[in-house]
From TrEMBL:
It comes from Smutsornis africanus. This is Glucose-6-phosphatase 3. It is found in: Endoplasmic reticulum membrane. Pfam families: PAP2. Pathway: Carbohydrate biosynthesis; gluconeogenesis. One of its GO terms (cellular component) is endoplasmic reticulum membrane. The keyword Endoplasmic reticulum applies. Its EC number is 3.1.3.9.
Length: 226
């Protein structure tokens, strides 16, 4: 893993060595793509366009947020900002990296929550837009444009997370793949016809199960908050 981490650090160096104007762009992207935006911006917009799509965005966002936390407890994953010092790499070779206000994230880093939760929750919205585009146009470019925008968005979000030293490249790739797979797998199981009571119970179940899993991890002698 050290070789993979070292390669990730060098990749972050290349990104940070880019044109100065890109710095503001990457920081803006990583801030705007925070997973909470799924619930505060994407869900209301999707719900306004189509109730079922909106509920699907909310449901998948909720489940993916829970799963991301659980996966991090078991997969751990170093954060570049901390690893470069803890590993001793900064003492072995010259490492030219910059710190930003959003760099010092704590907790495990694998997989990337920004990529996984965004990728999962936006899947139903993208498929709905693709169906709408296919209905009104025969152009293959128009039909594929929603998925093209989706792919580009996740790529940019992933690069922004590497730029601010919050994640290694392999954590970003893992987050994107897990998010797309989760969105694809859960879209057909959206409880769109359920009452508010169902969602309240589901949220409580996810909360209690995460607390129980955390307790089991601690009881097993694993420091989930390392």
């Amino acid at each position: 893993m050290d070789a993979l981490h070292t390669a990730g650090i060098h990749f972050a160096e290349v990104l940070q060595a880019g044109p100065p104007w890109l710095e503001k762009f990457w920081i803006s992207v990583t801030s705007l793509a925070d997973p909470k935006c799924i619930f505060t911006i994407c869900f209301p917009l999707a719900y306004f366009l189509d109730r079922k799509v909106g509920v699907s965005v909310l449901w998948i966002g909720l489940v993916s947020e829970w799963l991301n936390v659980v996966l991090k407890w078991f997969l751990f994953g170093e954060r570049p900002f901390w690893w470069v010092h803890e590993s001793g790499l900064s003492r072995k070779e010259l490492v030219t990296l910059r710190q930003f206000a959003v760099s010092c994230e704590t907790g495990p880093g694998s997989p990337s929550g920004h990529c996984m939760i965004t990728g999962a929750a936006l899947w139903p919205l993208v498929t709905a837009l693709t169906a709408l585009a296919s209905k009104h146009s025969r152009s293959l470019v128009v039909k594929l444009s929603p998925f093209g925008a989706y792919t580009l968005l996740l790529l940019v979000v992933g690069l922004s997370r590497i730029f601010v030293l919050a994640h290694f490249p392999h954590q970003v790739v893992g987050g994107i793949l897990a998010g797309a797979a989760l969105g694809w797998g859960l879209q057909g199981h959206t409880p769109a016809t359920r009452t508010m009571g169902f969602f309240a119970v589901a949220a409580l179940a996810l909360l209690l199960s995460s607390l129980a899993l955390h307790s089991l991890v601690i009881a097993a002698g694993i420091d989930a908050d390392w």
